[in-house]
Amino acid sequence: MSKRNTTSNKRKEPESPTVSPKAKRKLPTRSTAWKVFTRLKDDDNSCSCNYCGKIYSCNPVTCRTSNMNTHMRKCKAYLDHLESNSQNVIVSSGGGNGAGMIKPFDQNVCRQATVKMIIMDELPFSFVENDGFKHFCEMAVPWFTIPSRRTITRDVVGLYRAEKTALKTILSRNRQAMSFTTDIWTSITTLSYMVVTAHFIDMDWQLHRRIISFSPIPDHKGKTIANQFLRSLDDWGIEKVFSITVDNASANDKAITVLKERLSNRNSDALMMNGDFMHIRCGAHILNLIANEGLEDISNSIRWVEVEKITRGSVVLDCVTRWNSTYLMLKSALKYKVAFDRMADMDKPYDAWFKEVDSNKKKRDGPPMAIDWDNARHMVRFLKAFYDSTLAFSSSIKVTSNGCYNEICKIQSSVQKMAFSQDSDLTEMASAMTAKFDKYWEGTEKINKILIVAGVLDPRRKMVFTMFSFELIYGKGNPKCVEMKELVMDVLEKLFDIYSVRYATSNLQPSVSCDAENVTQVHQDFENMEVDNIDDPFLKFMVAKKTSVAVVNELVKYLKDELHVTTENSLGLPFDLLDWWKTNSSKYPIMSLMAREVLAIPVSSVASESAFSTGDRILDQYRSCLTPDMVEALVLTQDWLRASLRSEAMKSLDKLEEENKFMDSLEEEFNPPSQNEK
């Protein structure tokens, strides 16, 4: 809009140098546009841009500042000034933590933030062209040039590539054997996708879970799954595999067999202990099979509560394919027992419903009697162990391998107790569950011993808890307890030998806190030799053997040291297993190397399955035309961005704990305890 000739509206300045407040009202300048525009001295209803000089009308009654805001988004001189000088703008002037905060406006930063919002909140690319978003930007950041949907699409791909490069750098630095989970999902377009998730603990003892592949797969055959998995490893430059957690599909068994063969042919160090413990069966899936096996033989009274009558209100509905919904439904139904009893006496339609015949022309069971409610109570108490263990297995943001065997023992103990029940239905149920349990978790042959070793690496348990569990399951004095202990110690000692050699051939210097009487003296000629500088294989072996001899008792020392009994850290939070190993890594340098890889093992494939929920929202009926490459970019980048936010939160928490420890040490230094307190 050009300048208006409104000479009749001009106000004559009074001749007196003093002007009363009533003589000339101060016009409002609260809009951010007045940081860019200035009123003309001879015309209060007109203003000029401070950067290009263009004049606009600014009558507070007729046009206000809308035309000025429009100009700010297009003024090249002003936009160039922002980019070159980073014009400071007030981000927040209201309440909250950001009140009065000053930050430099940057077009590129705002554009990248928009891209991250699109990815993390699973928004369509066309979101930036919606009127609501445009209006929000106009009110909040009027000088932000909103990118088009095509620009957003290019930026998503660019951010994906940048994040992938950064993650590749992190993985290349760790150079450790990693654990994985994988699964297959069929999308709304009937195209199958295979997801691969990497799990590892970094040098700062932070657990990481990163999706590294979400690619189409032509079929569900074991060989195809193995080939797809190997392509993912090659793409990321990953050479060492510690474990792979999968569900119990027969194709996965074939895939694991193929992977063992091909990885061992690639590199002698690609697999830990020749891949004997690489195959981890999903614990949550096994629990589901065991529970469903028992619920198939459930009594008619419980079956009535499951599927016949509970239809609305606050009672959780049952789903025939999810056993945990049966537990939640029974648990909630028990809270309304009194209401059900009253309905039988007072609600005639309720009572009449049970007198009708069902679709099979059979009379319905019910209403529930006292014995039915007793059966429901027994069932809830029994299924609670399965429900709690499922939650423990399904966590993907904390270590799960250390508590896996503990949960398995709880399940086995619960099934054994139910086998001696006086209720014939429960006895039959326990028998069916025991058969399914032994198929996957029978102690001497079926269970993966690495899961028991992970429990030993918990300083609160060690072998003390392991032996307690053996005696609880098999009975004190049972020869099977000794057999199980020997099997576990054999795996533990072999792992320790492997990590001893790795420690000796690494750049780490031995720093072992062992008793002098336990350290065997070796020839002084090897004392100052560096393994990396030795070409002779025998000499290299002897130097490694020197280190191994010096620390041969580190495993024994760890097992003999007292159990850690503190349940909270300095912040009053629950015991952090990784923080304990971080603190004690100098005391147990070899054991800490082992712990970093063993404790990273996921005991369920939930981490990979959760990606399917994201994929189902991204590739819905409204966006089914997205290409597989774009779907992978969106799923992976979202996972990485969210993981970055969690990591920043954990770093802040660790920093706070370190500060608390430092202040506690100062308190002890300047205020030592008195003799009486000692």
TrEMBL record:
It comes from Arabidopsis thaliana x Arabidopsis arenosa. GO terms for cellular component: nucleus. This is Ribonuclease H-like superfamily. The keyword Nucleus applies. One of its GO terms (molecular function) is zinc ion binding. SMART domains: ZnF_BED. Homodimer. Residues 1-27 are annotated as: Disordered. Keywords: DNA-binding, Metal-binding, Nucleus, Transcription, Transcription regulation, Zinc, Zinc-finger. Coiled coil: none annotated. Residues 28-82 form the BED-type domain. It is found in: Nucleus. It comes from the Eukaryota.
